[in-house]
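Q: Got a minute? One more chain.
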Amino acid sequence: MKFLVTGASGFVGGAVAKKLASAEHSVRAFVRSDSRSRLPSDFSGDIAVGDVEDREALKKAVSGVDGVFHVAARYSFWHRDPSETYRINVDGTENVLQAARSAGVSRVVVTSTVATLKWPGKDKLADESSVASLEDLPGHYKRSKLMAEQASEAANGNGFEVVIVNPTAPFGPGDAKPTPTGRIVLEFLNRRFPGYVDSGLNVCDVEDVAEGHLMAFLKGRAGERYILGSENVSLRGIYDRLSRVTGLRRWPLRVPFAVAMAAGVADSFVEGRIFGREPYIPVEGLRVAKHPMFVDCSKAVIELGLPTRPAIQSLRRSVDWFVENGYSDVRVRGSDSFDNEDEAGVRA
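A: Always. Here it is, folded:
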């Protein structure tokens, strides 16, 4: 089959394109002109240049494909111009869906995020039924992605099938930009972390997420969403694992949420308002991290056959890639195993 992948120069989009090619499908990458250089060096598919706000470019890009993976998005917790986030994440999704339908493409996989789910409360796991409302969500990124989901659900039907996937926190090779999750690893490697709040993430591997995308296209039920994740780990547990895989004994300080928020407000004022740069501690990112977003991934495991490798393996792959590609000059002397539950930190 031939697939169009929007955002193929990004972390997840690049992994999806690579997975499709390894499964002997043809791939057409839809990328912005300034992102073309970030395509994997071994990418051998077609390239369509444009952005998701350009309907004519999309019309050409979807011509002759059998399916679309819409991965492109603005993934940031800081917004110099919030309207840009909505144009890319919401209007862009609607443009992709309209172009696919008009071209006779019958199935689209839309990449959303686990951030659109509502936190179900202490000691409970969110699943695909934990749908948030716009009022539940802090910040433009979360809201824009939920609105994109709503547009995707509305487009589904009359022979046009849309499947939504919700990746959790992907780590692994290829995070060139890097993403907010990748920066957790880089901050640890380069001693730039200011501390952490008492929260947690569901850690997954970017290659497993890519596999989940393909399985969603082949097996996913139209109109459904699937959480693509693996292991629930506290932030302290993530740092414990990074210490194990690198051999670096670095222990960031646990910071009360109120203190972290005050630092974030100050940082956002200085970096964002005065200098016009992305803050080191974005307030929106802190609000996202206020509660541990632990999830139940069993629906995707059962229905799609989603692989779920341990978090420590994904973190090790992320560390190795950053070091091999010059993001850090540390010497890694760690272990790939993590069997001691006390050292591993909190697991849900």
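A: Strands lie at 2-6, 26-31, 46-49, 67-70, 107-111, 161-167, 169-171, 200-205, 225-228, 231-234.
Q: Perfect, thanks.
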